[in-house]
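Please produce the structure of this protein holding nickel (II) ion.
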Amino acid sequence: MNDAEIVEKTIAFVKDRLKGAEGGHDCFHIQRVFRNTMLIARHEDVHILVVSLGALLHDIADAKFHGGDETIGPGVAAAFLKDIAVDDNIIAHVQKIIQYCSFKNSLDPKVTPFSSKELQVVRDADTLDAMGAIGIARAFNYGGFKNRKLHDPEVPPRLKMTKEDYKKGNGPTINHFYEKLLLLKDRMNTTTGKRLADQRHQFMLRFLEQFYSEWNGEEPHP
Ligand code: ADP
Ligand code: NI
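Below is the modeled complex.
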């Protein structure tokens, strides 16, 4: 099977597996991350099949929806890729990407650090999808899914979080901007990723300004 056929088979597999997934992690999230990956990869010297498969499979079994089990995703991906006879080295690299893509794993001091250019590209692409207009939409969608308040001025954001704190989080969705979304631009790895992140960051700041002026019944700043 050539690389294009492998990618095509993987797209079909992911579409099927993610049927019925929650809106922020559905196959359109995968499609956006795949597109962001291609956009960034154009400017980086990376193995295109590895980043393609990493992007497509990075959320194949999110631990959040599998009782916290973080080995399922890499396992499911490996079984599928083996089935279509993808090279073992490529499978191993894709598994690492799935394992290390997640924001919460990066908060875990017990996890052995791993890095590769390919991981950086997929991570940047995934991070971008948590920022900007899409990031805002996903945050409120996730908050609704968990039945959280939009905003509560009496509940301050928690600024120093461990991985456990992050998973337990129950605060209003506006707090998520201060706990995660506004921190993302400083976690980008690639030059193209940084440039795109800066623009999305500015957009989130403008959103928050408008949100508070509407919340307080004030005229928005021009
Ligand atoms: P990752 O997949 O990078 O580990 P998450 O699974 O924590 O990240 O988040 C996936 C999406 O859900 C992101 O867009 C994120 O901003 C959003 N999200 C996660 N936690 C919250 C929360 N407490 N409130 C609102 N949105 C959230
Ligand atoms: Ni993702």
